[in-house]
Task: structure prediction
Amino acid sequence: MSSNIYKQQAYETLAGTVIKALEKRGMEGHYYPTGKECLEAILAMIPHNSTVAWGGSESIKEIGLLDAIKNGPYEAIDRATATSYEESRALFAKAVISDYYLMSTNAITQDGILVNIDGAGNRVACMIHGPENIIMVVGMNKMTTNTEEAIDRVHSKAAPPNVKRLNKQTPCNATGICGDCLSPDCICAHTVITRFCRQKNRIKVFLVGEDLGY
Ligand code: SF4
Result:
């Protein structure tokens, strides 16, 4: 038996624990061993003709969800198509009242707390309030033991590749290490810890037994 099987079994066991913790926190949890299975489950959940928006996320791209929404029978709200500040604001306003909002979380603790750190804050703003449903695609690589480790994970593991991707002039881009910066390009302006969802099951967390995103 390959050692990967034991890794998968351990992921499944941990995911079961996390899903129970999410339920207590008013959130829905699911687990799929692969991104492919996760993609199928999410597409089966979103009714055709729904309005769908998303926040910056490599995870939703990696499992093929973003392409499926853009090319499928949905009304995709894509802020990247904006050609002016005004258009971007108008698309953000549509995203705020969308039926479904897709994203990942920067980290999740073993007791079901979500930790997200944003630059502009549009993604966390939508997560907190607005879209009818939040769908999160979360690789098991984003699991941490507590919120302190989660915040550290974002600064030390997620931010350095993200600033490369976004070409931001920050200390972590220059050195690979967080410099606790206040630079104009800082992608860590807002730290949001979600410990409870008052609108039951509005946030739906899809855990995946693969490494996804940063
Ligand atoms: S250096 Fe700035 S942008 Fe980079 S991780 Fe630290 S606070 Fe975030």
User: Anything to note?
Assistant: The chain has eight helices and ten strands.
